[in-house]
Amino acid sequence: MKKTEDGTDWLFDEEVNESGDLTEKQKRIVKAAVEMFQEKGFSASSTSEIARRAGVAEGTIFRHYRTKKDLLLAIVTPVMSHLVAPFIVKDLDKVLKTDYEHYEDFLRAIVKNRQTFIRKHLPIVKILIQEIPFHEELRTQFIEHVAKDLFDRFEKVIIHFQKKGELIQIPPSSAIRLSITAILGFFLARYIMVPEREWDDENEIELTVQFILNGLKAQ
Amino acid sequence: MKKTEDGTDWLFDEEVNESGDLTEKQKRIVKAAVEMFQEKGFSASSTSEIARRAGVAEGTIFRHYRTKKDLLLAIVTPVMSHLVAPFIVKDLDKVLKTDYEHYEDFLRAIVKNRQTFIRKHLPIVKILIQEIPFHEELRTQFIEHVAKDLFDRFEKVIIHFQKKGELIQIPPSSAIRLSITAILGFFLARYIMVPEREWDDENEIELTVQFILNGLKAQ
DNA sequence: CCTCCTAATGAGTGATTACTCACTTTATTA
DNA sequence: TAATAAAGTGAGTAATCACTCATTAGGAGG
User: Fold this and answer.
1) Cβ–Cβ gap B207/A170 under 8 Å
2) CB B73 within 8 A of CB B138
3) CA distances from A13 to A4, A74, A95, A110, B113 (A)
C-alpha cells in the first residue's frame, strides 16, 4: 500500500487507509458521517440522522464504533497522520542535496504535493480543523505527530538553505511561520474561503512561491 | 462612545458596544456563554449549564434572548462588524496621501491596530471563527460587511501603491491575499496556535512586515 | 438439515435538550 | 404610596440525545 520511501520518491501521495477492510454498511456510515459533520459540526450531528442517511439501523453504528466520538476519530486520525507524510523521510539532508538544489524547488514540490492531498481529503481536513480545539486526543496527537515533525523537518530545511546563503538570517521558526502561512493562506483562500471563484492554480501557486522567495531572500 | 473619524485618527480602537445597556445578570450570562462556547463549542454548550455558571435561572436567559442562537449572535455580531472598522473611512485616498507615504507605514499601522483589537476580543473572535461555517446569517453578514469592505478598501490601497511604483504588478487580489495571510498567520500563530510561547511581538511584527514588503516589492 | 457465528436490527432506556409560562421580586414612575 | 412595568424565577414540557440489548437474518461448514 505504501511506496518505498528510499529518498528519491518520497513525495508520493499515499492512500489513507480508506475503504480497505470496511464492510459495505460501514463505508456508508462513514460517508454519511463525513457529510453531516461537515454540514452541522460534530456535536450538532445526531447518530440517528447519520444512520438514516446511511440507510442503516442506528444500532449498526454502535456495532462498529463504540461511541460517536470513536466514529469521529476513526474518520479523522488517519488523514491527520498523513498530512505531513512527505516530510517523514529518513535521510532528509541527502534528499535536499539531490532533489532540491534551491529552496524554490523544495517549496514548489511541497505545495503541489500537498495540494493533491488536500483536494482529495478536503471534507475530512475541514472536519479535522473544526474539531481539533474540542478534543484533547486530537490536539495532543496533532502536536506530537504533526506539528512537531513538521516543525523539526522544516527547520532543518530552512537552516540548510540559510547556510547555502539563499535565505535571510532570521530565526528559523519565523521563516517557517512565514512560509507555512503563505502556503496555508493559499489553500485556505482556494479551497475554503472562496472555492467558487475560478482559480488559475498554476499562476497563483507561482505567485505564492515567488512571494515567499522574495520575502525570505538573503539581502 | 465613538471617536470622530475625520481622516487622521481613523485607526483608533473603538468600544464594541459591550456592557452598555445590559443588566448585571445579562452580563453574567454573556460572560458564561463566551466561556462555554469557547471551551466546548456552541452546539455542545447547554443553556442549563450556561445558566448555572452565570448563577442565574435558566429562564432568565430566554427572557433576554429568544433562542440560544440569538445569544450567540448577540455576542458575536458586534465584534464581527468592528473587525474591519479601521478600513471604513470616507476619504481613503486622502488618508493614504497624508498618513501613509509608503505601503510599509500602512501595513505597520494596520497590524498594530488590529493586534490590540484581537487581543482584547480574542475569545469572541475564536468563537466567531468556529461558528461561521455553521450559521448562514454569520456567513452572509461576514461576506457582505467584512470581506467585501475589507477587500474593496484593501484593493484601493494596493492599486495606490502599485501606481506609485512601490509594489509589484500582480493582480491586486493576489497581493491582498498574500498580505492578509501573512498578517493573519502571525495572529494565528501568536494567539491561537502557540500563545504559550514567549513572543517578541515587536520583532515578530517587524519580520512579518519586512517579509510582505520584500515579497511584494516592485522588481 | 442443523449448528455456529457474526452482522444487523430497532424498540426501548434514562438522561438531557431548548424552551415555556404562571408566578414572584425589584425597579420606575405618577 | 399605589400602580405599572420590567427582570427574574424554576418547575414543567415534549422532543431528542447517545447508547443498549434481546432478537433476527444470512452465510459457511459439516
Assistant:
1) yes
2) yes
3) 12, 20, 17, 11, 42
Question: How far does Cα A143 stand from its chain's mean position?
Answer: 13
Over residues B123-146, the mean pLDDT reads 95
Residues 36-75 of chain B with CB under 7 A from strand C are 45-49, 58-59, 62-63, 66-69
Q: pLDDT tens digits for A20-65?
A: 577 888 999 999 999 999 999 999 999 999 999 999 999 999 999 9
Rounded CA separation B190/B176 (Å): 21
Q: Which whole-number Å values give the CA distances from A163 to A8, A93, A176, A209, A215, in the listed order?
A: 23, 13, 15, 20, 17
| Nearest chain A Cα distance for residue B121, angstroms | 18
Task: Give the nucleotide nearest to B62 (CA→C1').
Answer: C19
- Positions of chain D reached by protein Cβ under 7 A: 7-12, 16-22
Distance from CA of A26 to the nearest CA of B (A): 26
What is the distance between the alpha carbons of residues A19 and A6, in angstroms, rounded to a whole number? 27
Question: CA A151 to CA A146: how far, in whole Å?
Answer: 8
User: What does the pLDDT profile of chain A (219 residues) look like in tens digits?
Assistant: 333 333 324 434 445 555 557 788 899 999 999 999 999 999 999 999 999 999 999 999 999 999 999 999 999 999 999 988 888 888 888 888 889 999 999 999 999 999 999 999 999 999 999 999 999 999 999 999 889 989 999 999 999 999 999 999 999 999 999 999 999 999 999 999 999 999 999 999 999 999 999 999 998
Percent of chain A beyond pLDDT 70?
Answer: 91
- Among B43, B184, B214, the residue with its CB nearest the CB of A43 is B43
Cα distance between residue B141 and residue B81, in whole Å = 9
Q: Please state, as a whole number, how many other Cβ atoms lie within 10 Å of the Cβ of residue B9.
A: 10
> A163: burial class by Cβ within 10 Å (0-12, 13-18, 19+)?
exposed
C-alpha cell at B122: 480574542
* Beta carbons of B214 and B206 less than 8 angstroms apart: no
The nucleotides of chain C lying under 7 Å from a protein CB are 7-12, 16-22
